Amino acid sequence: MSERGASGRRPRAPATGSEPRSIAETLGDVGAQLGLPDPKVLAPLVTRWREVVGDTLAEHTRVRTFRDGVLVIGVEPVWASHLRYLEADITARANRLVGEQAVTAVRFAVDMPEKSRDPRGPVVD
Fold it and tell me: 43 lies in which domain range?
């Protein structure tokens, strides 16, 4: 009698010499191959951004993406020049939050103010 799982398929044995891996590890590897941001770095930066920049700046900035060590921050136009002076501090605080030297540079991208953004998201032509 054959052994079948709930899906009706036979369970697949791991490749010889390999250990089972978590889905998070596998997805992280696939994401890296596709050039996607590391979720172990990006997720805490997004969810705990206020801890990195403080209450005032958190109201006027947001994490847009993280790739190849570069943290891209969306910032309202009037705050952009001020934040350039804080780049080293933001880099250090972000690295303290994620517990490693993952962020090597910070770049700023001008965003529309939160109040001006369409809640339905960006318009696609």
Answer: 23-113
